[in-house]
Amino acid sequence: MREQYNQNASYRYMVNPTTGGASMIPVWSDTATREMIVEAPEGDDT
User: Fold this and answer.
1) What mean pLDDT is predicted for residues 17-38?
2) FRET label pair with 5: which of 12, 14, 29, 43, CA 20 to 30 Å apart?
3) Rounded to a whole number, what is the distance in angstroms from the first to the last CA of the chain?
């Protein structure tokens, strides 16, 4: 993002747990959106 748009940002990979849809979302720091991470239940490899 810095090289192309001169912005301090990067992307995170996201999966919607309801639909299974995947996407990339832009974030503004290393810690942004980390509180939204949901761990898969133990034994669930998806």
Assistant:
1) 82
2) 14
3) 29
